[in-house]
Design goal:
Layout lengths: L1 E5 L3 H13 L4 E6 L4 H10 L2 H4 L4 E6 L10 E4 L15 H18 L4 E4 L4 H12 L6 E3 L2 H16 L6 E2 L2 E3 L6 E3 L5 E2 L2 E2 L6 H12 L1 H9 L5 H15 L4 E10 L5 E12 L2 E5 L6 H18 L5
Parallel strand pairs: 1-2, 1-4, 2-3, 4-5, 5-6
Antiparallel strand pairs: 7-10, 8-9, 10-11, 12-13, 13-14
The protein binds nicotinamide-adenine-dinucleotide (NAD) and (2S)-2-hydroxybutanedioic acid.
């Protein structure tokens, strides 16, 4: 199993590290445009192998796509992150060109690859890869919901004063400060709806804190987060590589599901060796449907800025 990660920055390196530590891939190629940077990150990570007990071979390359040939899975993290006060959507001007070039180079060298898009604004970047790469739709996956759901569970556990392993919940919709749809109605603590334990007001607070999860970290860190994003990407890569048939909310091209077409937006999917093996349609209530519709309008507005 060969995995390429483009962008050896904060998220790319974190993702490569988690993939290696989980020890399921034979090879991870880190590629960056900055001279020597990916080589340095790869060497540093390889020097943790004997300490962390993994056999995955990590190599770094400067913009040499021939070294990515035959990748089963490629992850795109190249591009700029936001600074405090910015939205993800403001990154489109720089990141769209980068993502388009990178995905075209990846597909040229690995025509059968599955691509996981991470660069922001992620739903629009996933849409761009759908429109320009020629890959089948099951092979293009946007990572956002897995991270947002992890943050949702963190906030739920905090509100419930419970261990995170006790809680379950999912965030669908767009990966943006206003577009996320945390499904509070379906969130549980050991199968019991969380509304049994906390007030509606507290649950609304959990929802709002979840939606601005990325912005909160960006304000604290001065740039956007990388540990949980890297872990979320590695979980998707593992689900595909190990054919786990696990369910994650991912940005997926819809064709009638959730009443939408021609849009990439977060919805639960089953991930396995073929990438997106199924889109799971949940029965949403009217408020959730309205929230999803509003979220989609926001994503479409950003998609309209693309020069396709
Ligand atoms: N979808 C998500 O949930 C999620 C989570 C976190 C970050 N992100 C996004 O991921 C992206 C990367 O974030 P980061 O914190 O790792 O940024 P970073 O600046 O640390 O790393 C980005 C790397 O991309 C490289 N790069 C730029 N152009 C390139 C090109 N054409 N080819 C190859 N490499 C190139 C840069 O040299 C840099 O090393 C940002 O757009 C950020 O918003 C998304
Ligand atoms: O918040 C960001 O800009 C980065 C990423 O999308 C995140 O949610 O951490």
């Amino acid at each position: 199993m060969k995995v390429t990660v483009v962008g050896a920055g904060a998220v790319g390196a974190s993702c490569a590290e988690y993939i290696a530590i989980k020890n399921f891939a034979s090879e991870v190629v880190l590629l960056d445009i900055k001279e020597g940077f990916a080589e340095g990150k790869a060497m540093d990570l390889m020097q943790t192998a004997s300490l962390n007990g993994f056999d995955t071979k990590i190599t770094g390359v400067t913009n040499d796509y021939s070294k990515t040939a035959g990748s089963d899975i490629c992850v795109i993290t190249s591009g700029i992150p936001r600074k405090p006060g910015m939205t993800r959507e403001e990154l489109i001007g720089i990141n769209a060109g980068i993502v388009k070039d990178v995905s075209s180079n990846l597909v040229k060298n690995s025509p059968k690859t599955i691509i996981i898009v991470v660069s922001n604004p992620m739903d629009t970047m996933a849409y761009l890869v759908h429109k320009t790469s020629g890959l089948d739709k099951n092979k293009i996956i946007g990572m956002g919901g897995a991270l947002d759901s992890a943050r949702f569970k963190y906030r739920l556990a905090e509100a419930l004063d419970a261990p995170i392993s006790d809680v379950d919940g999912m965030v669908i919709g767009g990966h943006s400060d206003t577009g996320m749809v945390p499904l509070t109605r379906l969130a549980t603590r050991n199968s019991v709806p969380v509304s049994k334990f906390i007030s509606e007001e507290r649950l609304n607070q959990v929802m709002e804190d979840t939606k601005v999860g990325g912005a909160t970290l960006t304000k604290l860190l001065g740039t956007s987060a990388w540990y949980a994003p890297g872990a979320a990407v590695s979980a998707l890569v593992q689900a595909i590589a190990c054919d786990q048939k696990k369910m994650f909310p991912c940005s997926v091209m819809l064709d009638g599901e959730y009443g939408m077409k021609d849009i990439c937006i977060g919805a639960p999917v089953i991930l396995g060796r073929n990438g997106i093996e199924k889109i799971v349609e949940l029965e949403l209530n009217d408020a959730e449907k309205a929230h999803m519709k509003e979220s989609a309008e926001g994503v479409r507005k950003t998609n309209d800025l693309l020069e396709l």
